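User: I'm curious whether this sequence folds into something compact or stays loose and floppy. Could you predict its structure so I can see for myself?
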Amino acid sequence: MENNIGSNPDTAKGVLSQRETKQDVTPEVTPGQRCSGAEHARRLLQKLGSRFFYKNGATLLHHCLSRPVVYVYVLAQGGVPVNVQNSDGDSALHISVRAGNYGMTQALLQCSADLGSRNKLGQTPLDIAEGAIRDLLLRYQPGVVQAVMQGKSQALDRLCKHTWCSVGSVVKEGKNLLQLAMSRAESDPKVINCSRILHEYKPTSDLIHAVLSEDVDLLKEMLSTGKGCLVNIRWRDRLGPTLLSHAIESNNLDIARLLVEGGSRVNRIRLREHDTVTTTIPLFHKALQKGVSQGMAQYIFQVQDYTERTEKDSSGNTAILRAIEMGLSEDLIHWLIAAQKGTCLTHRNQHGVTPRELATQKGRADVVYTIDRFVEQQSMKFCLLYLPVHFYSEENLNITQLGSKSTSEAGENGIRNTIQSIEARGLAMFEAAARGDLRQVQILNEASYQDKNGFTALTRAIVFAQPEVTKYLCTSRPELKSIADNCNRYPLHYACALPDDQLMTFARILLDRNPEEIESRVDKDGRFPVDYKNLRGTEEVRWMLYDARTLDAHGQRGLHLGEWPPGSETSPPLQEE
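Assistant: Here's the prediction. I'll summarize afterward.
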């Protein structure tokens, strides 16, 4: 049932009867039928209408502030006025801010909530905001409604580009943002540029809010035309959410498929883990959260580049490590192992811990069994060549289960000897690379060894300033340029931490081929290699270089090869006795 509120919908004071005020606003759902938040919100809108008001002047937006944020997107997209104030003068934004609901506040701002509205106490939303929510509101200042009202075209342009604001939401005087700007432009020339900006931004805004409101049919229609739509627009900045990451977190596989088919990037995308923190994760890790289906994870895994599979979060966790850390199901972890043919078992986090070791620490006996069972079922070549090349170590192998259960003591000793022999050759190669012994490196160059720190021979050659070895390794094993350490730092990160004269030498070698692909790699904190030039001399970088020069292949402080590079801007940090 609807209530007509006259000529001023922004200060609705409904006169609904008591019966209307108390009526149930929960749409009927067939028993046994599953209903998503977006579907439920649409049924609510269909049942009551966009102009439904309560006795105290509250709208459906006020009523749904304790529900998932998709309700706000659906209701605003369906025409529910965003800035109506109840009998206390509170808009939905006032109430959300007062409740400390960050996600809902963000959703209302993206639906063009007015930052300038005042309640009966004369308070704007910013007046009552605290902490992270206050910071959020400040990023949206002066707000798109006020920017239009005041003809601030530059501020409006900035907000449109970074805040995912809605051009189509009803914001003031019963008009949406574009209509408001056009009507104001007739009497205020300053607003003309605002109209132009909103007109140009409208296709992208409509696309964004089709995704946010999970409107599959509208999104499909818009992508089929594709006129003026920016599929890869980010919220806030280069580490903010993308439309695809939002679809993943919303667990809407239909939306995710449409976006990928429409050109959404799945590679080289790194995002803040949450909007209120600075730590970052790769896009695929968004699919490794409780509440997101395994089908979503499998789809994103399928469409991404294979190089993305070793990207790490802020703790140095690759996908399988993160799945174990997050307590995800054994089925998902088993699928990750099988999908990567076991190569992920050698991944380590920033503490040098493997998936099996992390599962042991977490008390995940089911995962430990799954890992041991997988290794047992693989060929001896996988167990005795690939794993030792990455210093997996015999401690991670349940040797008595390899092959026959009646493995003889002599057989076990043979396996151990093989593992130790392979690891010894890798260690010798690292030492030769650090010394600059090119001939020895050429003799030992049998595999892309990666030790417990995540270092390769290329890492060692760079931090010990050995350009000839670096050039040989980049030529003979170019894949080494794309192998990150346990903190997701690539060889170019280490090169950029060196003095300029050394950086120029190593940059020419590392960037000889596919420079864009190498330069775009980021560490676990989302920093590009070039960012390390500005970090030279900091404690973090001094420790980083010190570790790369002194930690042995097993992560122990014991590698003392050669002198520190002449003229180095860094030196070993002083350690407390």
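Summary: The CA atoms of residues 133 and 413 lie 61 Å apart. The chain is about 45% helix and 0% strand.
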